[in-house]
Amino acid sequence: MRTGKGARAGQYIALLGYLVFLGFPFLWLISTAFKPARELAALHPGWIPRHPTLANFRQAFDEQPLLHAALNSLFAALGAAVIAVLIATPMAYVMARRRTRLARAATGWVVVSQAFPFVLVIIPLFLILKNLHLIDSRAGLVMVYVVWALPFALWMLVGHVRSVPAELEEAAAVDGAGRLRTLVSVTAPLLAPGIVATALFAFVSAWNEFFFALVLLKTPGKQTLPVVLVHFIGAEGVADLGPLAAASFLATLPSLVVFAVIQKRITGGMFAGAVKS
User: What would the mean pLDDT of 111-115 be, rounded to a whole number?
Assistant: First the structure.
């Protein structure tokens, strides 16, 4: 009995430590965003701003086109999420329902592709986009995000498809429905939690992505929000902490809002995808 209580207490302590580890940077970011310049330069800065101010937010918007960059990020993230789900859903359906060697090979590719770092693919990717005249193009960036999100989207959706009873599709086939009609009318509605969770992860990864956007976009008017945030760091490597913290805090809000709104559906979708028929 004591051992069980001790183990449970240890789990709660570990969970609390993990929450502190995750929450500390964000809380410090919020605190820094509302501090005036004098408090930011203090030798021993405090947690709570003594004289909170919105000057950092005004300065951030004055120095950089944050709203335009946010619209660019929104375009890229939404485009990548929608296209990745539209492509991954029928592919996952085929991979889950047809247990062939090709399907197993595709599943292996999905797992292996996640191990490749960005640096290994950026040069061939740059050359391909150059031949397609998609360098410095938002459409080209969306294409890259879609390709990068597809393996993870497939991995998630295959599990969701396998959790849908095949008997429902067999009943639809008896009624005369074809494969496409069955997928659209029977399977897809049952995959809604998984599709939402997959689209959200694709959106968040594209919204926060920095490396591809930095390499592929050169025109300032086309740059995404993570790239614009770098401009708050001077040529000598000295960061303008107040405006940088304010802009970074605003950049994190969309992801937090989306997670807060549909977190129950995300959780249900993730656990549903873990069930295999």
Answer: 69
Q: Is the pLDDT of residue 269 over 60?
A: no
Instruction: Assess contact for 244 and 130: CB atoms under 8 A.
Output: no
DSSP letter, residue 44 = S
Residue 53 CA to residue 55 CA, distance in Å, equals: 5
Distance CA 78, CA 60 (A): 25
CA atoms of 151 and 173, how far apart (whole Å)? 29
Q: What is the largest CA-CA distance in the chain?
A: 75
Q: How far is CA 185 from CA 126, 171, 180, in A?
A: 40, 12, 8
Under 8 Å between Cβ of 143 and 134: yes
Per-residue confidence (pLDDT) for residue 263, from 0 to 100? 64
CA distances from 125 to 85, 114, 216, 277 (A): 22, 16, 10, 38
For the chain, what is the total number of helices (H) and then of strands (E)? 14, 0
CA distance 232 to 31: 18
pTM of the model: 0.80
Q: What are the C-alpha distances in Å from 232 to residues 67, 229, 235, 239, 252? A: 15, 6, 10, 6, 16
- Residues with Cβ within 8 Å of 194's Cβ and at least 6 positions away in sequence, in order, are 156, 157, 159, 160, 269, 272, 273
Q: Supply the pLDDT for residue 267.
A: 53
The interaxial angle of helices 66-97 and 241-273, nearest 10 deg, is 20
Q: Which has the closest alpha carbon to 228: 63, 108, 35, 75?
A: 63
* DSSP secondary structure of 202-221: HHHHHHH--HHHHHH--SGG
Count the alpha carbons within 13 Å of 13 in the hemisphere toward its beta carbon. 6
DSSP 239: B
Instruction: State residue 249 phi and psi, 5-degree precision.
Output: -65, -45
Is it the case that residue 45 has pLDDT exceeding 60? yes
